[in-house]
Here is the input.
Amino acid sequence: MRALSRKASGTGIDMMRGTAVIWVLVLIGAALLLAAGGVLLRYVVGVLADRRTLRYQSDLLQKHCEEVQNMYRQTRGWRHDYHNHIQTMKAHLAMGKLEELETYLNELDHDLTTVDTVIKTGNVMVDAILNSKISVAASKGIAVEAKAVVPEKLDTSLSEVDVCLIVGNLMDNAIEACMKMRQEGQRFIRVYIDILKGQLYIYMINAIGENPKKAGGVYLSDKNAGSHGFGLMRIDKVVDKYHGYLERQHEEGVFATEIMLPL
Here is the structure.
């Protein structure tokens, strides 16, 4: 009887040990599955992020191509006009019509002053991005008023690339919003950039064809009602990077963005 009891006890212990081993194997398997799932999830998220980044870069490339083409058309137009002006002035001079020539020169000087929309902020990189976007806006019938002052060098405080990223995305969003206005005469963008209390102050207001969508106090992208928008997120990240201030708001027919970045 004692032998049978010992045998039964040993069998029970062996069963318990077997059960414990099985549970250990199950736990190890579950841990491996979770780890594999985590790796797979990170891979999928990475792929989706890469695709989104590629789409965003593709959109930027398309916009830059449009800007270059528009500036090229403007340059060709200026060259054509310049040639015509020279011919007209030479004709006045050949006929000895000096008074008419003087009048023509005065009118030309006035026209050149009126159409000179080149913005000079003081920073070459910001000048380039701002003027290229203004050129695109003008080609789409959008009236732009801009006043901008930016330090020549930002390397010791803000990255010039980050500032250009903000300005470029703000202008792109404003242009897209304005293009939803049916009447061309109602499209406008106003830009103000300056140094206020040791900070770079950026303010942009533009016309909108319809009120933007919001979720939880956050403005959503027009391209995807369920998304914050890659351009908007890029702006948010830059502002967070420098612990700056960002405020977006809208009223009937207008949208405004206010940003302050410490220098």
User: Anything to note?
Assistant: The chain has five helices and seven strands. The beta strands are 143-148, 188-196, 199-207, 214-215, 218-219, 245-251, 254-262.
